[in-house]
Each structure stands twice: as structure tokens, then as C-alpha cells.
Amino acid sequence: MSQAFTKSMARNIFFGGATFFFLLLVALSFDTMQVLPKRDHRENITDAVARGKAVWEKNDCIGCHTLLGEGAYYAPELGNVYKRRGGEFVKAWIKSRPAEGTPGDRRQMPQFNLTDQELDDMVAFLKWTGEINTNNWPPNIEG
Amino acid sequence: MNTQSLTIDAHEPGTPPGDLAIWFFIFAELLAFGVFFGSYAFARAHHVELFNQSQQLLNRASGAINALVLITSSYFVVRAVAAIKQGLSRQCANWLGAAIALGGVFIVIKLFEFHAKFSAGISLSTNTFYMFYLSLTIFHFMHVILGMVILAFVMAKARSGGYSIEHHTGVETGASYWHMVDLVWVILFPLVYVIR
Amino acid sequence: MQYKSQAVAKPYFIAAIGLFVGQILFGLIMGLQYVVGDFLFPAIPFNVARMVHTNLLIVWLLFGFMGAAYYMIPEESESELFSPKLALTMFWIFLVAGALTIVGYLTVPYAALAKMTFNDLWPTMGREFLEQPLITKLGIVVVALAFLFNISMTILKGRKTSISLVLLLGLWGLAVFFLFSFYNPSNLVLDKYFWWWTVHLWVEGVWELILGSLLAFVLIKVTGVDREIIEKWLYMIIAMTLITGIIGTGHHYYWIGTPEYWQWFGSVFSALEPIPFFMMTVFAFNMVNRRRREHPNKAATLWALGTGVMAFLGAGVWGFLHTLAPVNFFTHGTQITAAHGHMAFYGAYVMVVLTIISYAMPMLRGRAANSAKAQVMEMWAFWIMTVSIVFITLFLTAAGILQVWLQRVSTTPMGFMATQDQVALFYWLREITGVMFLVGLVVYIASFFVAGETKEAA
Amino acid sequence: MNKPSQPRFVRPCTLIWLALVTLTGVTYTIGDAGLGGRNVMLLVLAITLLKSQMIAGYFMGLRKTSLLWRAIMGGYLIVVGGMIAIAYLMGIN
To answer: B158: distance to nearest CA of chain A, Å?
Structure first.
């Protein structure tokens, strides 16, 4: 008995289609991996940059800020903060947050008690991040 | 409403040959290719010079030969369907075999073309034209392979007498998919290789 | 309820709803912090509240999925669960581990939590949605494996249906792609690239298989439409989901350092992503219209139809709004993303879990459906929550459009904080609708306690 | 619809195949001559749509289906062809 629309055909399309497009994703990812070194400048990932990323993660900065547009949308984009504000400003800002906050409606940033070493590492990480080729995103310096 | 209406015995008049499910898939695929064709055309509008220059470096002859190969292969598949409609399983399988062989020819020619491009250092990131050229042709290339796999299954079943005059939806289903692969190349070839 | 072991689903569903309440409460805290910056500071800084909000969402949805699987699989396989005891043990392990993690977030600074859990040995923390300490992540893997073992064994010994096959594929996929959360290179671009293999391939990939099979199961039960037809639809929908969604991953690869061609691949394929959601809506309405029985549980039917519509709106339409690269260039990382996230998660995953709970809970409590009074209340809850989320989405979209305009499009762009002050009105409106959502949730929970006894036993 | 026993000297599908091959040759020749411009583009596009319609109608068998199916395929070809033409004309300006 031939059927106009069979379940087994629908199933074959599902399995075939899923496999096909997953392979395509793998192939494209393979190409991306070849191209990435030219775009992320990984030769500039020093120990300080790597440590800075760890500091970034250990304090859950992504819980308020965006980095290259990903994260929370509560506080400014930091992918280009090195260009916008400079390293010294970033360090002074992080250091000067009052532990008890500032009363009022202004959004609060916690005092993370970072060491000078950690601050330097963080800035190195943000500087390197700012040099990634992001296809000219964000549209302007305000992020 | 009669829920059994989708499981009728004979082919419903007015619907395309083969399993209806494959037609949803065919149109979904055509839609994806269509959006890609449109993207190519509009990207070209912004970089006419670049596209015209880069297009000159393509191997137009191999593109045209491949068009002929796929058209002929599609024709063989039509003959395969005609054969099984007369109950000629062996002939059907032979025509399908010939179609698959031509698919293989397409693959080989395409591989030579890709090899030439890759060894010239061209990649997806070379420029917008090559991004599209490689994306479109590789995407289509993978469809040719998938189509050959489908036809191979159909051929194996035909050879073992799995289809008959009354029951040959499977052949028509595979045939429809293969014609879609052909159709895409018929549009892709002039768009990418010829129009300037 | 046809099989005794289906009862293990009950604690999973109860825990899911409990954690759902927690998620909403923390959502309200964050919403308020958007406009009253020092609210609960420094006790609960925003990043902590957000972590709790998002992690609770993920965990309660996982509880919902597991509960759904424990309820569905015995009925689909026509056999008792392989090991109800294992299922209950895993329930308590998962609940306690989850609770401890949340307590950890709330009581010690995140950096201290990282230190306590030896994050330095194998850093995986501090990435969006994957903030859990390593030990919790490993716990999730263990629980997931035990769960999958239990479910797979049940299916293997019983009847194998397409619905259970799809559900199983989805759940295995969930476990497999979670493994990418253990990969955290110091190269941020690589980190982000594969982070999406967990996040995107979950919510726009394998989770949709789970979504589809849950919806299909409930539709078979409440409409009585032939299983063959429903399963055909299911396969076509999830086929389209993966065909568009897998390469659709590319819409996250526009601005994070990945090559430019992703803008084309991402745009083309994610522009097609609404198709499966549209099919799902058509599917749900079509099946309900062809129903061959009048199931007494009207509320479950309403949830099922709602899932179709809201998933299409939230994931499909609101996703499409900002998925094309030229648009996304301006909207990336703004409140537009937040708007899409809220409606998509509610419409697709929250609603499908509430659908299966709505269908299964009365059965688990020994009746085919709740009393008319309880159902009316549940439907009120449906409308209050759904309308609230629509308005939350609209307000966030408005805030996002204004934000994009002032901060990104304008020739004299405003700074981030200054822009936020300009859109404060919309955040207030969002917070008010958020409170409405909570009211809806309270009504929903109350519906479980209202006159449940008056209906016939199953 | 199916008249398997009717012997014909040349099958319709063979004629279609010949037409497709010929038209492909024409397209190639135009490309090889390096011709370009609006009119050439429109000619090549017209040939392409004609070929596509032949494949859809005779090979895929849509010719014998209901109006809906033919409309979907015809509409698709018109939209794709139209997009290509519009984009090309945009590029001239």
C-alpha cells in the first residue's frame, strides 16, 4: 500500500536532515578554526591576559556587563572599555567602589577587593579583548 | 473529519509524485537556496566590480559540463521512473545506476575545481564573492552526495525487486529529490558563473 | 495513571513549580534594581540575583523535563519504569545539589565560592548561564546519566514509539552538548564559540525535540487523534527545527571575533527558524480541531495551544526581529535581546512544562481532570501570566528600541548609563507587569488547592 | 495519466532533455563570449527560468498536479528570478 505522506519518510528526513546540517556545522567550524588565529591575535594572549580572564570569571562580571555584546544588559559593554576609558581609569574605578554602595537610585557595582596584580591582569585581558576583529562591532565607542 | 484520508491506497490525483513529506523538504531546501541566491544577488549589487573580476577566474567550462551532467542524470532518473511504471525493475535499477554514476562524475569534476581554488589559496574568507561561490557550491555539493545516497538506496531496493507497477512511491520520492538538486544547479550555474 | 511508577513524576513537578516561584521572585528583585539601583545592595548584588534567576529557570525546566519523561515513558513503553528508586534518589540529589548551589550564590561572594570549589584547578565558572561550580556541573552530569540510563532501559524493555524516541534523542543531546560547558580555554573567542554549542544547541536544538515530543504526547491524549498523524507532524517539525537551527547557530557568530561569512549563514538559516514554530502552531490547532474525543481537562488543551502560539511569537517572530546581521549590528546586547529571551523561554519551554504538568498532575492525584472550578482558576492563571509576559516583552522591546536609537544609531551617541536613565519609564512598567505575572503564578498555584476533590476518579 | 503501453518514437522527456542541453549550451556560449549588461542578463535569466520550469514540469512531474503545487513552484521561480533581476539593476546604478 503506498501512502501519500508516510511517517517513515518524515523520520528519514529528520535523521538525514539533522545529520547533514550537523556535518555542515562541523565543516564550517573547522574552517573557522583555521581562520581564527588571524582574527583573535592569540599570539598576544600572555599569562597576564589568561589570568585576567580568570579574574573576570571568578567575579562573575558577565552577570552585569556585556563582553562583545554577550552577558547581562545592566551595566556598560566592556569589550571596548579599554579604548573608551583607558586602563588606569578601569583600575581606579574598580578599586574605588564603596563596599556598602552609594545610597540612591544609581546602579551599584560591588567592591571586589582585587589586588594590584589582579587589576593589571584584568586590564591586560580587556585590552586584548578590545583588539579582537569583531567586524567593527560595536557601532560606536559607547558600546 | 476522516483522519484516514492521508493514508489512501493509490496516488492522490493532483499531488506531486512521491511521498508528500519529501515535497515539504524539497520546498524547504529550495527556500534556503532561494534566500542564498537572493543574498548573492544583493551582495553583488554592492560589489559589482569585485564580483565581475572574481567571476572571470572561475572555470566556466567545468560549471557548464556539470550542468549537462546533472541534466542528463536527471533524465536517466526520469527513465527509471518510467521503467518501474511498466514493472521493469531491472531497467529501473540500471537507469538509476547510470544516474548515480553521472552524480559521481559531477563530484569528480567539482573536486578538481575545488582543488584548483584551494591550492590557489582561496578560502571562505578571501572575499565576498568567493565566500558565496564556495558556500553555494559546497552546500550544493553536499546535496549531490545526499541525493546519490538516496538514489543508491532506491536502486538497491529496485534491484531486489522491491518495487512494482502498483507500488513505486519510493522511486518517485528519490527521483523528485534528485531533480531538485538538478534544478538548483540549473539556477546556480548562470547566476554565479555567467551573469555579469 | 496507568503505571504505578509514573508517580515519581510528582515530586519533580512540585519541585519545578517551587523553583519557578523562586525564579520569578529574583526576577522581580532584578527588575527593581534596574530602576532602584541600591535595592538590597550589597546583600544581593545584581549579578547574584541574575545568576539565581537564570539558573533557577534552567534547573526547574530540567526538573520539568525529567518529570515529564518519568510520566510519559512508562505510558509510551507500556511498561513500569526500570527503577523508580533510582529516579527518587536522583530527585533528592539534584534538589539538594541545586539548593546548595543557590545557597552558595547567595551567602558567599562568588569569588569565594569559586575558591571553595577549587575552580582554579579546572576553571569553568563565571560564564553566562554556566556559573555553577565545577562540582555542581559534575553533579548535573551524574544525575543526567542516571536519569538517561533509567529512561533508556525502560524504553528498551518496552514498546518503542516515535514520541519516546524523539524525547530520548532530545535528552541525550541535552547531556552531550552540556559537555561543552567543561571546555573553557583562555582564548575568549574560542570560549564563546563553543559556549554556544551548549547554549544555542540546547535551546534552539535538542530542547526543541523535547518540546515537540511533550506537546505531541499531550495532544494525542487530549484530542484522541491517530498517533500516526501526530508522529508524522512531530518528525516534520523537528526536522525543520534542526535543519534551520543547527546552522542558525551562526546568528551568534556575527560579532565575537568569528569570520564574516557567519553573517550570511546565520542570517539565512535563522531567518528560516520561525518555520518550525509556525508549523507547531498549525499542528496544535489542527489536531485540536480534528479531535475525536472531548477530554475533560480543558486547561491542558489551552496550555498546549498556548505553547504553539507563544513559542511562535517569542522564539519565531521576536527572534526574527533581530536575527539578520545588519539589524543585529545595532541590537546586539541590548534590551531587544532580553525581550526576545523572556517571551521565547516562556512561550516555548515554560509553557510546555506547564502543559504536561497540567495534563499529568490531576492523573497523578487520581483523577482524569480537575474540577471545573479549579480549571477555571488555572485558565485565569494562564491568561494573567501570558498577557503579563507579552507586556513585559513589549516594554522591553520599547526600551530596547529607544536604547538602540540613543546609544547606537544617533549621530551623537549617548553613554550607556545616560541611555538607561532615559528608558527608566519602561523598566518601571516592566516591573509592574512582572508583579502581575507573580499574581498569575500565585493563582496558578492556588488552583492546585481549590476544590480538587469534586471530580470523578480516573 | 499513465499510458505505459503506448509506444512512441521519441519520448517527450527526451525532447525536454535535448532542449535543456541546448539551452545550457547557449548560456555557456554567452558566458564564454564575456557578454554582460542588462539585456544579456535578462536573456540568461529568461533561459534559466524556462529551463527550471521544464525540469519542474516534466522531470519533477508538477505539470500534472493541481494548481496549488504549480503555483508554489512557479511563484518560487518568479520570486528568485525577480530578486536576481532587481538586484542586478540596483548594481548598475
So the answer is: 15
Chains B and C touch (3+ CB pairs under 8 A): yes
Interface of C with B (CB under 8 A): 225-226, 228-229, 232, 236, 239-240, 243, 259-261, 264-265, 267-269, 271-272, 275, 290, 292
Chain D, nearest residue to B177 by Cα: D60
Joined grid coordinates for residue C359 = 495534563
Report the residue of C183, C235, C260 to disrupt the A interface, i.e. the one with the largest count of A CBs within 10 Å.
Answer: C235
B132/C225 Cβ within 8 A:
no
In sign, the C-alpha dihedral spanning D42, D47, D51, D57 is positive
Domain ranges of chain D: 12-92
ipTM: 0.91
Contacts of B46 in chain C (CB under 8 A): none
Mean pLDDT, 10 residues at a time, chain B of 196 residues: 39 82 93 95 94 94 97 97 95 97 98 95 93 95 96 96 92 96 97 95
DSSP C236-289: HHHHHHHHHHHHHGGGGSSSSS--THHHHHHHHHHHTTHHHHHHHHHHHHHHHH
Separation CA C69–CA C368 (nearest Å):
19
| DSSP code per residue over C110-129 | HHHHHHHTTTTTS---SSTT
Helices assigned H by DSSP within chain D: 12-32, 38-54, 67-92
Residues of chain B with Cβ-Cβ distance to D69 below 8 Å are 14-16, 23
In this predicted structure, what is the pLDDT of residue D70? Answer: 95
Going by beta carbons, is chain D in contact with chain A, meaning 3 or more pairs sit under 8 Å apart?
no
Residues 6+ apart with CB under 8 A from C320: C270, C271, C273, C274
Provide, as residue numbers in chain C, all residues whose Cβ is less than 8 Å from the Cβ of A140.
408, 413
Q: Residues of C numbered 117-136 whose beta carbons fall under 8 angstroms of chain A's beta carbons: which are they?
A: 119-120, 123, 125-128, 131
Cα A112 vs. chain centroid, distance in angstroms?
20
pLDDT confidence of D93, banded at 50, 70, 90? confident
- Kindly report the pTM of this predicted structure: 0.92
Using CB atoms, which chains have 3+ pairs under 8 A with D?
Answer: B
**pLDDT at residue C309 above 50?**
yes
Q: Which of C240, C416, C246 is nearest to C333 (CA)?
A: C416
User: CB–CB of D59/B182 below 8 Å?
Assistant: yes
Compute the nearest-CA separation of B48 from chain A (Å): 21
Exposure on the CB side of residue C188, measured as CA atoms within 13 A: 35
Q: pLDDT, tens digit, for every residue of B60-75?
A: 999 999 999 999 999 9
Topology classification of domain C1-160: Four Helix Bundle (Hemerythrin (Met), subunit A) (1.20.120)
Cβ-based contacts of C333 with chain A (< 8 Å): 66, 68-71, 73, 77, 138
b or e along D2-32 (b: 16 or more beta carbons within 10 Å of the residue's beta carbon)?
Answer: eeeeeeeeeeebeebbeebeebbeebbebbe
C452 CB neighbour count, 10 Å cutoff: 17
Question: How is chain C split into domains, by residue range?
Answer: 1-160, 216-448
Domain annotation for chain B: domains and CATH numbers:
60-196 (1.20.120.80)
CA distance C355 to chain B (A): 25
Residue among C62, C48, C146, C52 nearest C102 (CA): C52
Contact predicate C310/C351, CB 8 Å: yes
pLDDT category, A103, cuts 50, 70, 90?
A: confident
Which of these CATH numbers, 3.20.20.70, 1.20.210.10, 3.30.390.30, 1.10.760.10, describes C216-448?
A: 1.20.210.10
Q: How far apart are CA A128 and CA C142, in angstroms?
A: 37
Residue C202 backbone phi and psi in degrees, to 5: -75, -65
